[in-house]
């Protein structure tokens, strides 16, 4: 069974289409994926996020809604991963920005021995359609440089699509402390330190309007979280960087 965690904050507009597409995709790939279940993690949404999620609950794709008392994407993903019990778990964003073929691609990598497969918008074969403003692009480049020092060799730490062996996800989620958007970096630092085999795969990524990441509101916090992660994880061993083709690292991240 595959359990998919979707953190959702005020996603009444974007979530229904994502769940519809997911249901269609899962139905088409039932033979490979087997049973699939969605856990939507909502915290303090002020719109109808929980209602639209419950309305999408079907036999073809069961959808459960979890509440998370702590605010932030990181806190929500952590709560979602800890609520899983499947052998294969994943998290993805409510906006459906990552093409769903990544699920089968990730599954193939798991069969080849990966413990964790992370979507990347920064590999040569990634297809991305970025439409971020200039301020955000400059901020994203600086962020990538700093994040890259914490997890060398990973081209895109921030893509909202990551797949795990269930036991690995739950083990690392227990330790996660970053509540905001930088939690992916802490996750990757801890996975590295635990010796997990992390494989980055190219994804197709489409910018979906309505982002909950507002650079003026969340940008500074994301950088501050990186500093805290560096401090907290300073004692963890960092195994050798994974090999990523040099020409591949071109974009990605906040
Ligand atoms: N539960 C919960 N989910 C959140 C919170 N903040 C963001 N999210 C979710 O995190 C996911 C990613 O957020 P997006 O709004 O797509 O932002 P992003 O992908 O980081 O940035 P873009 O590149 O602009 O899409 C979405 O599913 C959001 O609903 C939060 O505080 N709580
Ligand atoms: Mg997004």
TrEMBL record:
It is found in: Endoplasmic reticulum membrane. Its EC number is 2.4.1.117. It is an enzyme of class 2 (transferase). Its main location: endoplasmic reticulum. Residues 4-168 form the Glycosyltransferase 2-like domain. It comes from the Bacteria. It catalyses: a di-trans,poly-cis-dolichyl phosphate + UDP-alpha-D-glucose = a di-trans,poly-cis-dolichyl beta-D-glucosyl phosphate + UDP. It is a single-pass membrane protein. CDD domains: DPG_synthase. SUPFAM superfamilies: Nucleotide-diphospho-sugar transferases. Keywords: Endoplasmic reticulum, Glycosyltransferase, Membrane, Signal-anchor, Transferase, Transmembrane, Transmembrane helix. Pathway: Protein modification; protein glycosylation. The keyword Transmembrane helix applies. Belongs to the glycosyltransferase 2 family. This is dolichyl-phosphate beta-glucosyltransferase.
């Amino acid at each position: 069974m595959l359990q998919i965690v979707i953190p959702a904050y005020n996603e009444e507009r974007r979530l229904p289409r994502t769940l519809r597409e997911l249901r269609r995709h899962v139905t088409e790939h039932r033979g490979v994926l087997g049973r699939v279940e969605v856990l939507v993690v909502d915290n303090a949404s002020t719109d109808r996020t929980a209602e639209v999620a419950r309305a999408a609950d079907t036999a073809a794709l069961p959808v459960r809604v979890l509440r998370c008392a702590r605010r932030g994407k990181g806190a929500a993903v952590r709560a979602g991963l800890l609520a899983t019990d499947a052998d294969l778990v994943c998290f993805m964003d409510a906006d459906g920005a990552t093409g769903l073929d990544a699920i089968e691609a990730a599954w193939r990598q798991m069969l080849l021995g990966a413990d964790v497969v992370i979507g990347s918008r920064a590999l040569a074969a990634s297809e991305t359609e970025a439409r971020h403003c200039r301020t955000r692009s400059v901020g994203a480049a600086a962020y990538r440089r700093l994040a890259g020092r914490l997890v060398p060799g990973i081209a895109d730490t921030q893509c909202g699509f990551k797949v795990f062996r269930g036991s690995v996800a739950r083990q690392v989620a227990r330790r996660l402390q970053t509540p905001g958007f930088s939690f992916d970096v802490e996750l990757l630092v801890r996975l590295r330190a635990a010796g997990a085999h992390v494989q980055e795969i190219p994804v197709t990524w489409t910018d979906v309007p309505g982002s909950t990441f507002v650079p003026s509101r969340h940008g500074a916090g994301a950088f501050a979280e990186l500093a805290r992660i560096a401090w907290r994880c300073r004692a963890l061993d960092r195994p050798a960087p994974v090999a990523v083709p040099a020409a591949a690292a071109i974009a990605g991240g906040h």
